[in-house]
Design a protein that fits this description.
This protein is mainly β. The chain has a single domain, classed as Jelly Rolls (Sandwich). The protein has 2 helices and 12 strands. The strands form 2 sheets. It has a 7-stranded antiparallel beta sheet with strand order 8-5-10-3-2-1-11, covered by helices on one side. The protein is globular, with a radius of gyration of 15 Å.
Length: 156
């Protein structure tokens, strides 16, 4: 399967492409290719599974918050960032160029279902929908159903 192949969704500010779903991996993991536009990213959150980010192109500013300790760093092409289950994290593309990465979610399941439900399907990469930011009720549902908890950042 090539990078361009797979089901595509606009999820918040990112364009994701499903590469291997839980049905392909006996539920072991879920793999996506993620394109993050300049100034795009995700807010501080934690979830029940692990995430591993492999930067393919560009760079991202990561913030990892465990207990009251905050670590902020830039990950560029070739970097691997692993976030254990339950650890709060965020990333942001602070550059002027898109960033792309593979993201591995372990185990498969909740995140894949979340992207399918709240992502906007993309059928033409030349006509990508605008970012969709959920309203308060949708955020509440997301947090309950998919074990995602938004976390206010700790000042560092």
């Amino acid at each position: 399967m090539h990078l361009e192949e797979g089901r595509k969704f606009r999820v918040l500010t990112d364009l994701i492409t499903f590469k291997l779903g839980g049905s392909d991996t006996q539920g072991t993991f879920f793999l996506i290719f993620d394109k993050v536009e300049p100034q795009g990213g995700v807010a501080m959150h934690r979830q029940s599974g692990q995430e591993t980010f492999i930067i393919f192109e560009g760079e991202l500013k990561f913030t990892i918050q465990q207990n009251d300790e905050v670590s902020t760093f830039t990950a560029s092409r070739g970097a691997v960032v692993h976030v254990p289950a339950g650890v709060a994290h965020a990333y942001n593309n602070t550059s002027t160029s898109p960033t792309s990465m593979f993201v591995l979610f372990t185990p498969a399941g909740k995140t894949e279902q979340f992207f399918e439900r709240f992502g906007v399907p993309v059928t033409d990469e030349h006509m990508i929908p605008s970012p969709v930011i959920p309203d308060a009720e949708t955020l509440r549902i997301m947090q309950q159903e998919y074990n995602i908890q938004l976390v206010p950042p700790v000042a560092n």
